[in-house]
Inverse folding.
């Protein structure tokens, strides 16, 4: 595993969306889907708009690995589950700040889906 560079964090933070492709059981990537991403310190987080019923979320949780593209950054990642209420409170605020311009109809489901918060942990390609 590795860490995000400041450049990668900044580029992804300022992008509106992230292309998420969790890996299938056979190790091949699923078709990428656009999702929202937020930054908290030196970490990046995503949530499922559809809650635990979201297909990309179910795949990410089952395999814990995938690939992301955003802001010119192209990375393999591990998906780490987040249960810390303090982190989730900050992620709620980050979603409201970054995406508030889209209105409550979009932001509120993201905040309500806090049980689907996943941390994106980059790793070096082999």
């Amino acid at each position: 595993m590795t860490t995000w560079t400041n450049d990668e964090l900044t580029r992804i933070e300022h992008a509106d969306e992230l292309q998420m492709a969790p890996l299938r059981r056979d190790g091949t990537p699923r078709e990428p889907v656009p999702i929202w991403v937020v930054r908290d310190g030196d970490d990046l987080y995503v949530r499922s708009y559809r809650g635990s019923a979201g297909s990309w979320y179910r795949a990410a949780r089952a395999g814990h690995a995938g690939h992301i593209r955003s802001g010119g950054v192209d990375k393999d990642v591990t998906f780490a589950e987040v249960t810390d209420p303090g982190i989730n409170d900050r992620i709620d605020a980050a979603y409201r700040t970054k995406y508030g311009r889209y209105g409550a109809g979009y932001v509120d489901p993201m905040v309500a889906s806090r049980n689907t918060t996943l941390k994106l942990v980059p790793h070096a390609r082999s």
